[in-house]
Design a protein that fits this description.
binds 3-[(4S)-2,5-dioxoimidazolidin-4-yl]propanoic acid; 15 helices; alpha/beta; eight-stranded mixed β-sheet; binds fe (iii) ion; about 400 residues
Length: about 400
């Protein structure tokens, strides 16, 4: 067993604890022992050998969690950006062999080392804003080996930076050209066979899919989710982004960790998600980038009592966004979330979306000492600015990084 290290105490902080969608903060002391929160109270007397960190009245929050990213990929889609500015739709571009399949080509031709090298600047951009935990999806390889390579790259990020990574198997993202008229074979030979290998190699923490008219049907996702459950893996889904396909209801039936996007979600879907404990992950970057107009039903989600998270959806096509603070601001301005909902959406709610409740994302005894200290004194001051990084310090498992 590791030798116990001396305790650390954080004092004089305005603490947002991560467990509520209310923006309010409290003057709390936080005691950390061996990288884990040992106590949280209004006044904690420093124990012997304790290092005291005065926050000078600053806002202290859980380190942020980006719970939906495609941050590992090859190449970029800048040329398509111009096509879209010229009037082509996302579906037009996908139908013309662009979109996800164009990133597939660039991803397949990159080695694991090259994928890491291309992804690290994006990861660093997120971490520089106080992110301590990141979900990373496959989904641009679309062959067994290329999908596995994406997750190998994702896993290795954890050794290269002070960050916790959760991986998701998203082989059901698009149909690669070689399987164009063989959907069922793609699911058997790549999605399911590859998933079994990813599981055997310890590369995968959850299973995701893109349930949309231009991707996979609820029936196909049902098969994939049933297989995932057989492997003991939790599921999540890109659902109701461009149309209502019944994906969120399917996700709720499978007890999914989350259903994500949700612009076309109905009030019944919201209620089903709330009953199942399936987190609603809102992704304003994709909404913005695609110039969408249909808003996710925030009032219905609130009325149902669903947990709402916010994420970047960092991906080369529909959300080339590497700022979670910006996503929070967008969720407030574009979707009408309160600043408290935005803050909860990237801390406690995002942890729940990754199956990490109580592990990180909240300032509670037993959780990892993953904190962000900000040059701000309230949650509103954090969510209000656009493109202004007020991070003062980040701590990962109690260590300053
Ligand atoms: N929904 C999205 O917004 C991204 N994937 C998904 O399933 C788009 C991915 C891309 O266009 O590269
Ligand atoms: Fe996505």
């Amino acid at each position: 067993m590791a030798k116990p290290t001396a305790p650390h105490l954080w004092t004089d902080a305005a603490v947002y604890t991560g467990d509520t969608a209310q923006a309010h903060t409290r003057r709390l002391d936080v005691l950390v022992q061996d990288g884990t929160i040992a106590a949280v109270d209004e006044h904690i007397t420093p124990p012997a050998n304790c290092t005291v960190h005065s926050c000078g009245g600053r806002l202290l929050t859980p380190a942020l969690i980006d719970c939906h990213t495609h941050v590992v990929y090859g190449g970029n889609r800048a040329a398509e950006f111009q096509m879209r500015l010229d009037g082509a739709t996302y579906a037009d571009i996908a139908a013309a062999g662009g979109g996800i399949v164009s990133t597939m080509r660039a991803t397949r031709s990159a080695s694991v080392d090259e994928l890491i090298a291309q992804s690290l600047p994006r990861v660093d951009s997120l971490l520089a804003e106080g992110v301590g935990t990141l979900e990373v999806k496959s989904g641009y390889g679309l062959s067994v080996e290329a999908e596995l390579n994406m997750l190998r790259a994702a896993r290795r990020l954890e050794g290269l930076r002070p960050v916790r990574i959760k991986t998701s198997w998203l082989a059901a993202h698009a149909l690669p050209p070689e399987y164009q008229d063989r959907r069922s074979a793609y699911i058997d030979e790549v999605v399911l066979a590859g998933l079994a290998r990813a599981k055997a190699e310890g590369l995968v923490d959850a299973v995701d899919g893109f349930c949309e008219h231009l991707a996979f049907t609820p029936e196909e996702m049902d098969r994939i989710f049933t297989f995932a459950s057989g492997l003991g893996l939790p599921v999540k889904l890109h659902a109701e982004q461009l149309s209502n396909q019944g994906g969120a209801a399917l996700a709720a039936r499978h007890g999914a960790l989350s259903a994500d996007h949700l612009e076309w979600l109905t009030a019944e879907d919201a209620a089903a998600m709330a009953r199942a404990g399936t987190v609603a992950v809102l992704l304003p970057g994709a909404f913005y980038m695609l110039s969408e107009t249909r808003l996710p039903p925030v009032a219905a989600l609130r009325a149902a009592g669903a947990t709402i998270a916010v994420s970047t959806d960092c991906n080369p096509g529909t959300s080339p966004l590497t700022s979670l603070l910006m996503a929070m601001n967008m969720a407030a301005v574009l979707f009408g979330l309160t600043v408290g909902e935005c803050m909860h959406g990237t801390t406690g709610a995002a942890a729940k979306a990754l199956g990490l409740a109580g592990v990180t994302g909240t300032i509670v005894p037993g959780a990892a000492a993953d904190f962000a200290v900000w040059n701000a004194s309230s949650v509103a001051e954090l969510v209000n600015p656009i493109g202004f990084n007020q991070l003062h310090a980040r701590y990962f498992k109690g260590q300053k990084v």
